[in-house]
Amino acid sequence: xxxxxxxxxxxMRVSALGxxxxxxxxxxxxxxxxxxxLPDERSAADLLxxxxxxxxxxxxxxxAYGDSEQRLGRLLSTRQGRWLVCSKVGEEYADGSSQxxxxxxxxxxxxxxxxxxxxxxxxxxxxxxxxxEDEHIIRHMGxxxxxxxxxxxxxxRAIGMSTKSVGGGVLAASLCDxxxxxxxxxxxxxxxxxxxxxxxxxxxxxxxxxASGHIPxxxxxxxxxxxxxxxxxxxxxSCTVVGTLSGAHLESNVKAAREAIQGS
Length: 264
Prior knowledge:
By secondary structure, this protein is an alpha/beta fold. It is 41% helix and 20% strand. The strands form three sheets. An eight-stranded parallel β-barrel has the order 3-4-5-8-9-10-11-12, surrounded by six helices. A hairpin with a 6-residue loop joins strand 1 (4-6) and strand 2 (13-15).
C-alpha cells in the first residue's frame, strides 16, 4: 500500500492522511478533552502549508464547523497546488447546538453555499452529516438523490455519508462513492462497514482514529502508532482524517501513518 491511494471508484487519488479543519472554525460543543483557542490566520496558514509539505492533499470541512469553510476559502485563494476538498450537508451548528435538515432543498442550498464560501467551482466530495438516523436518512429523506443530481450537474465530484451506525454504514457502502466511519482502538464494531466498502469498491474514510484526542499522556506515541497500524491494516481504508492545530502533532501523525503503511 502507498501514501497516495485510490478514493474508491471516483478516479481521484487521496493521501493516506487528511486534515480535519473543525478546529479552524469551532471550539464549542466538541468531544475533545481540552479547551482550545481558534487559530489566527497566520497559524492556520502555517498548518495548511505544513500539511502540503507533508504530502497531505485532503481537507475535510463542514457547515457545522463554524467558520471553517470561510477561513479555508481565504487560505486556499492564495495557495497553489491541488487540494481535494470534502464538505458535508445536513448539519448546521449555531448558538451552541446542532440542527439538522436533510431535505433535497436544503441539500442544494448547503452545497451552493459551501462553494461560495470556499471559492471553488466544484466540491470533490460531499458527505451527509448524519444525526445518527442513518438508514432513515438514506431510505426516506432524498438527500443522497439530491447529491447525485448535483454530481450530474458537475457541482460535486463524489458523494457519500458520514455515518454513525453499522447498519447505516453498510447500506451507504452499497449506494455511495465514499463512507466516513468511526474506527479506533476502542471502537472496532464498524469494521463491518470497512468490509462492506471493500466488497463494493466504496472509498472508506476513517474519522476519530485517535479517539477525538483522548490520547493517554503516558505512552502517547505508542497509542498513535498502534492506532495507525489498526486503521491501515484494513485494505478498504482510503484515508484517515485527523484534526489538529499542532504542527508537531501533525508531523508525528504523518510519521506514524507512513510507518504503518510500510509495515502493512
